[in-house]
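User: Earlier you gave me the apo prediction for this protein. Now I'd like the version with adenosine-5'-triphosphate bound, so I can compare the two side by side. Same sequence as before, with the ligand SMILES added.
Assistant: Got it. Here's the input I'm using:
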Amino acid sequence: MTTQIKNVNKNYGSFNALRQINLDIKEGEFVAILGPSGCGKTTLLRLLAGFDSPSSGDVWMNHKLIANSTFFLPPEKRNIGMVFQSFALWPHMNVRDHIRFPLKHHQFLSEELKPSIDHRVDEVLKMVDMHHLGERMPSELSGGQKQRVALARAIAPKPALLLMDEPLSSLDAELRMGMRKEIQQLHQVTKASIVYVTHDQSEALAMADKIVVMNKGKIEQVGTPKEIYSSPTTSFVASFVGKANLIKGKWEGTAFYPFHQPSIKWDGTAVTSELRAKNLFPARPEQLELSLSDDGVKGIITNVQYQGKEIHYTIMVEGEQWVVHQDIFAEFSIGEEVYVHLKEWTYGKRMDERKELHFA
Ligand SMILES: Nc1ncnc2c1ncn2[C@@H]1O[C@H](COP(=O)(O)OP(=O)(O)OP(=O)(O)O)[C@@H](O)[C@H]1O
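And here is the structure of the complex with adenosine-5'-triphosphate:
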């Protein structure tokens, strides 16, 4: 299913929860809506689901108008499935009945599925690896198993659009990683378009074809995970997604002089023109490195966090705090004077050039 959101605003009284939202979701596309708490992610999902209507602008699905300020199609009349953070299972229904329910009631159930509802229940239970637990009640399931039931219930009627609101946030870290893979596999098998709301950038980067970064009710940037991570166009995207240090300085073409220090020149070929215009260089913690040789930007270490395969340092540089992630082979201590460098091979080099630099 294709979906278009055109010039949508949503106001609650005088508060603008969504401002001038324009977005296209292609057939089969996996779109992540990423942003901090309160930025309007759920509000946008509710408009797509049909729980609410826009204050202005309109929403189209498969080239049909489904919502504007005066009219909206209710959820049951849209060919969608939904998965919520809270699982939303019914306590009195066992696993099989949860999955059977939408198959009996979904308005868009295809003629092919109608005579084979039990077969479809089995098929979907196998997809989410729950075929041995069909008779269990929700109170007899773990968090991960409950989330699998919620996923199975949403995909059973083969909806054309699957809406997911922070579906993994109540699971522990290990289960979340496992469920990411399962959601990716389900996407490949079902070929449904997915809109996936999250505030976790690693989840969005790992799964989505396209990421929509939101802040304060507005879209900041839309792009592939690589574009959003490597070429942020706003300082918000650079710091929220890449956790970048926003380093002040002077640009001359693609060369950057941190804090206007003429002796230190960084290659900023990959930095977008929007950030150059603000005299900023977005350096992610893994793009910087520390040494004792005095040809970098001088700073003092103020915090050290050992993380196993790397160490996270906080460094005070010209009154600002920078974060650098460095491997464990060189260790520095709090109070130590260090020099911060941009890793040479980070930007704009071809693979063979990188190797030369790395192994020279
Ligand atoms: N019914 C409502 N009435 C008034 N304000 C609302 C209403 N629903 C949401 N808001 C406000 O709109 C803003 C966006 O809310 P929304 O739930 O979309 O944010 P979110 O990005 O999903 O946040 P979270 O990640 O915390 O769930 C918030 O400031 C919220 O307080």
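For your comparison, keep in mind: The chain has a mean pLDDT of 90.
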